[in-house]
Description:
By secondary structure, the chain is α+β, with helices and mostly antiparallel strands.
Amino acid sequence: xxxxxxxxxxxxxxxxxxxxxxxxxxxxxxxxxxxxxxxxxxxxxxxxxxxxxxxxxxxxxxxxxxxxxxxxxxxxxxxxxxxxxxxxxxxxxxxxxxxxxxxxxxxxxxxxxxxxxxxxxxxxxxxxxxxxxxxxxxxxxxxxxxxxxxxxxxxxxxxxxxxxxxxxxxxxxxxxxxxxxxxxxxxxxxxxxxxxxxxxxxxxxxxxxxxxxxxxxxxxxxxxxxxxxxxxxxxxxxxxxxxxxxxxxxxxxxxxxxxxxxxxxxxxxxxxxxxxxxxxxxxxxxxxxxxxxxxxxxxxxxxxxxxxxxxxxxxxxxxxxxxxxxxxxxxx
Length: 332
Ligand code: DAH
């Protein structure tokens, strides 16, 4: 029967039209929807036009529901059109053809990476990693290390002193060696530690000198430790950091806190490059910390991780490490 068909069509039309309107979000899609449903030749208009073929009762019923639907759809359409207009992004503000970009991820500072590699090499040989204060007392930085106030070695350490009204013996540590004294003061032998950390010197900077830098200190004290232990340990360290066939050279050097003292160099493209100072802990340093120097002996060493990183990575200026330039930092 045409009458029932027509009124069913209004229902169907409503379902079709509302779901199609929901999925149209651009202005073009909305306009196409308007033409299809509300346009002069649209589906709702055809229903209204077909009313004439219905009998009077049916015409009233279908006509009324079709007109209600028209009003309903018109207002829904206006609503969607407003939404589409307000959601519109200003032209050109997003270039959808651009490829995606990787988010910038953080990473470990090159000094930290080198420090970790160095301390790990010693950790695997039984050394424990500890840290100490960067603001230090003159006593630990100098006196306990056999560098009394009138000692000429103090001249090598251009010291940054910390201004304090009440006292004049506070400084920024010039090396990590004060931790030797602090550890021995607190611990009974055997001691095997490595101490990474920042140091400061009042120095003019150039490609190989910074006023701030890191050091890694090492200390081993026990009964019967000899110079052979020093050599064996540092040899093994050099092999781990610079490769198994690396040549190593020890030469006499002077540091007030060791006796004998040495510097250690490695062969680098046919040249000897000094990478650390070391030596047998001076009996006075053992005594200052309360150790019996007849019973105990030990060795100590100190190196600059930035210098080692410079060698390994072909870095020509130590100042890069603290300049905070991402072009440098992201290369690691
Ligand atoms: N503290 C020394 C410096 O800063 C480096 C050093 C040399 C440390 C010999 C040591 C050592 O432990 O035995 O120049």
